Amino acid sequence: MTTTTQSAPSASGPVSAAGPAPAATATPAPTATPAAAEGSGRRRARGLLLDTDVVAELRRENPDPAVVEFLQRRRRSRVYISALTLGELHALSAQDSALSGQADSWLVELTERFAAYILPVDLQVAAAWAPLAIQDVPAVESLIAATAVKHCLTVVSGNAEGYRRLSVEACDPWQRPGARSAGD
Predict the structure, then answer these.
(1) What is the pLDDT of residue 25?
(2) Res. 2 pLDDT band, cuts 50 70 90
(3) Degrees (nearest 5) of the Cα angle 119, 124, 130?
C-alpha cells in the first residue's frame, strides 16, 4: 500500500479566490494536523490559522493588498483553517442568496484545497477551550483560539487583539508592515 504525504497549503504562489495556493516546494507535513508539543511552557507557533474574516477577504474580487502581502511574506508558513470557519462561511453564503451558487462552488473548492488542513473541534480542542469559555467571548472565537493553542498556531485575524486577550498568538494582516504585531 502506498501512502502520500500532502504539503500544507502555504501562502506562496498566487492568491486566488480560494486563498493562498499551495507551494510547490512546501515542506511536506508528516500528518494532516500540526503536532502540538507536550508541556506547559509557551511554544513557538508553527503555522497560521486563518480566521473567517481573512478567508472571506481573500474571496473578494479585489482583496485588500495588505492581506495579500501579509500572506505572501509568509509564503513558507503552513496554513490551516478551522472547521468552524467553513461553518461561518456557509452561514454567510446562505444569508446572501445573490451569491449563494457562486459561494457554494467556491466553498467546495476551498474545502477540497484545504482538505487535510481543516482542523476539527475535537476532544483536545474542547479541553483547551474550557478555560477560555468562562471569558466574555463568542464561542466560535474562543474555540478558534483553543484550536490555535492545541495545534501551536498563530491566529491571523482582523481581531488579533481579541485573540491576544485570550493569550493566543495572533496577528492582524490588515496592519501595515512597520507597525509591530505578533507573528511578524
Answers:
(1) 27
(2) very low
(3) 110
72: Cα within 13 Å, side-chain hemisphere:
12
Specify the 3-state DSSP secondary structure of 61: coil
What is the model's pTM? 0.74
- Residue 176: other Cβ atoms inside 10 A: 12
Q: Are strands 79-82 and 118-119 parallel, antiparallel or unpaired?
A: parallel
Domain ranges of the chain: 43-171
Query: Residue 48 class from Cβ within 10 Å (0-12 exposed, 13-18 middle, 19+ buried)?
Result: buried
Backbone angles phi and psi of 164, in degrees to 5: -65, -35
Q: Does domain 43-171 have CATH number 3.40.50.1010?
A: yes
